[in-house]
Amino acid sequence: MIESKNGIVGLAIADAMGVPVESCLREELINNPVTKMIGYGTYNVPKGAFSDDTSMTLATIDSIATLGYILPSNIADNFIDWLNNGKYTSTGETFGESRITMRALAKYSRKLVKAEEAGEAGELDNDNSSIMRMLPIAYYCYSESKDEDEIFRIVKRVSSITNRNDISILGCYIYVLYAIELIKGESKQKAYEKIQKANYTFFEQDTIDKYYRILKNDISKYPLDLIKSTSYIVHTLETVLWVLLNTNSYNEAVIGSINLGCDTDTIGACTGGLAGIIYGIDNINYEWIEDLLQYEYIVRLCDKFDKLLNEEDN
Question: 188 has which bridge partners?
């Protein structure tokens, strides 16, 4: 029985906890760590408000759960509804969106390109705007028993709505493969070993080499000073895996990821989603759940998604 709320609520809570301290320096947070939901700070939003990370994840879930399959143009339409009308937000206001995301959706909304061609593809366009919304793709691919070829094609199409460079696509692919192993019930360490052995022949060697520290070494053994919590997708994925492999609970993983500073909401969200799968919603600090805005809506949407994920013919 797949229960997507474990990962999705885990993602949303960590996103909301990271929102008020986005762009804060690591040194600031080490001296004054975030250990509970707080409001305002970087954005003028109340305690428990989540950002674009959760909103775009919910928009993706709504599309898949409504259609029963993945259609990038429908996902992109939901993104437009979020960006322009505040749908899928916690407060009715859209915030946190990157310039890369806005440029891509602007092209798509003007019907200049197809959805899966809207994303920027330059070397400087590899932020974490697509990896942050990949968890629904992992749940869907697992429920449909997709093989690596199919997972790659789906990830490429969905990532390319905002991020079309192969570095971004590979980061999303690794994240989805890791999440699928966790959904299967593999331990976080065994899941890591499996992604190191996965098939990456869809990508050029230069692209694969960007993830050398994850795929060829053991990212968890690197000293903290060498872990950069920036919005560059390679750094984001390294940080997420480093935190997960070096912590032993959901609460510890989320506090650990956010207090590394810089892109706190997205790194928190990507970490929190995976930690939610590993430890389950019952092991999340209950006060954090109570503080999360739109919690009941998120759970209802996950329930709708789960009906698709748990159909007998999947």
Answer: none
| 131 and 171 Cβ atoms separated by less than 8 Å | yes
pLDDT tier for residue 54 given thresholds of 50, 70 and 90: very high
| Tokens linked to 268 | 């928190």
Q: Decide: residue 149, CB within 10 A, 0-12 exposed, 13-18 middle, 19+ buried.
A: exposed
- Looking at residue 229, the DSSP 8-state letter turns out to be -
**Joined tokens for residue 138:** 């992992």
Q: Is the pLDDT of residue 313 over 70?
A: no
Q: Is 198 exposed, middle or buried (0-12, 13-18, 19+ CB in 10 A)?
A: middle
- Asked if 254 and 279 touch (Cβ cutoff 8 Å), the reply is no
Amino acid at 181: E
- pLDDT value of residue 83: 96
Alpha-carbon torsion (214, 219, 220, 226), positive or negative:
negative
Residue 166 CB neighbours (<10 A): 20
As beta bridge partners, residue 163 has: 120
185: number of Cβ within 10 Å: 10
H-only helix segments in the chain: 5-18, 26-31, 52-67, 72-85, 99-109, 135-143, 148-159, 166-184, 188-196, 205-209, 212-215, 233-245, 250-258, 264-279, 286-291, 295-309
What does pTM read for this prediction?
Answer: 0.97
Whether 151 contacts 141, CB under 8 Å: yes
The b/e string for 214-249 (b: 16+ C-beta within 10 A; e otherwise) is: bbeeebbeeeeeebbbbbbbbbbbbbbbbbbbbbee
Enter the DSSP assignment of 111: T
Scanning the structure block, which residue is given the tokens 């429908």? 74
What is the residue-averaged pLDDT of the chain?
97
CB atoms within 10 A of CB 260: 22
Task: Determine how many CB atoms are found less than 10 A away from the CB of residue 267.
Answer: 30
C-alpha span between 249 and 62 (Å, rounded): 29
Give the tokens for residue 123. Answer: 């070397």
Determine phi and psi for 157, rounding to 5 degrees. Answer: -65, -40
Q: Are 237 and 211 in contact (CB under 8 A)?
A: yes
